[in-house]
C-alpha cells in the first residue's frame, strides 16, 4: 500500500513488514511482527502502520518517526475478524469474533470504548470523507439499526432503525450529507438517510428477482449508481433521488457510436540473424513471449456471454463492479456474465462510450485519482490503460510469469502498484510536458 502522503510504500511477507521510499524503492524500515500479517493499513497522516494478525487476535502498530516505539493490542479470547484506523489516525477499531462488539482503542490516552451489536455484513462501518462522523450497521432483537457517532469523542449522535429485511451495507456520499443503506440481494431496496437519521428516499427497481449487487457514489455526490443482478445499472440523481437513466449490458453491441477495443494476441516474428544458441535470457523472453495489442472492432460486435448456473449460491450474473472517474465524467462497469469486458459510460451524455473486450477475465480496474484514465488487469502479465485519447497494452518486464491480480494508483497518478500472488512491482508513468 502507498502511504496517504505518497512518500512511502508498505508491503508485508509472512511476518515481516517492509517500508520503502515510493520513488526509489529503497528500504527505509524493516519490522518483524509476532505472526503472519493478514492485513496492513496506514494511518491518515502516514506516521503509523497497523498490522493485523487475525488468527492470533493481535494488532501491532509501528511508528515511522520512532522505529523503536511500537504498540500491541491483544483482543484475547474475544478474537479478531477486522481492524481499521479511525480518520484521525490515533484510534484503532477492532471487530471481535461473531461480531460481538467493536472495540475502539486510543493510542494517545490508552482508553478503550465499546460499540455493541455491530452487524456482520459486507460493509458495516463507514466514515465520512472529512472524518467527522462514523456510521455503524447494527442488529438488535432481529431488527436492523444504524448508529451515527461523532469521531472526535465517540459520542452517539443518532440511533435509528432501518426499513430493511437484512441490511447488507452502508456508504456515505463523498460530501458526508447522505448515507446510502442497501438490503440483501433477496430484497431490492436502497435507502437514503440524512445525517440526523431522517429517511430522505427509498428506491426499489423491481420486486421478486435478486436485487442490488454493487453501489458507487460519484465524487461530486450528485449521482448514485446501483448495479443489479438483472445486468443493469440505475443512476439516481441527488435532488429528487429518482432514476435518471438505466444502463443496459447486452451481449451484442450494435450502436455505431460505441467504440469497441478488442485485445488480440500476436506471436512475435523471429529474426534469424539475431539468433544465437542458446539465446540469451533477455532475447529468449522477447522472442517467444506472445504480445498483445488493441484492434478496433466493426460494430455490431458479439461479446462472450456465460450463462450463469441458476442453482448455485452467488451466481456470476449482474453488475458486480462499478467506479466513477475522478472528474465525474465517466463510469466504468463490469457485468459478471460477460466477464471479459469493461464498459465505459459517458455520464455527461448518459451513453455508452467505449467497450474494452479482453482475452481473459477482468480481475480488477481502478481510475487514476487525478485524470480520466482507467487501469485494468486480467490476471495476465499485462496492464491495460484507457483514456479518452485511446487504449494501450503495457507488458510488465521481468522473468517468470507475473500475473497481475490487483492494482493501486499512487495519489499523484504518476505511478501504480501491480500485485500478483506473491510479488509486486511499481509502474511509473511519464508525465507529458505541457
Explain how this protein is built.
The chain is built from 1 helix and 38 strands. The longest helix has 8 residues. The relative contact order is 0.07. β29 and β30 form a beta hairpin. The model has no long low-confidence stretch (mean pLDDT 92). The strands form 10 sheets. Strands 26-25-31-30-29-28 form a 6-stranded mixed β-sheet, with no helix packed on it. Strands 4-5-6-7 form a 4-stranded antiparallel β-sheet, with no helix packed on it. It has a 4-stranded antiparallel β-sheet with strand order 8-9-10-11, with no helix packed on it. The protein is 2% helix and 48% strand. It has a domain of 115 residues: YVTN repeat-like/Quinoprotein amine dehydrogenase (Methylamine Dehydrogenase, Chain H, 7 Propeller). It has 434 residues and is mainly β.
How would you classify the quaternary structure? single chain
Low-confidence stretches: none
Instruction: Round the Cα radius of gyration to an integer and report it.
Output: 24 Å
| CATH topology-level name of the domain at 1-115 | Methylamine Dehydrogenase, Chain H
Record field, number of beta strands: 38
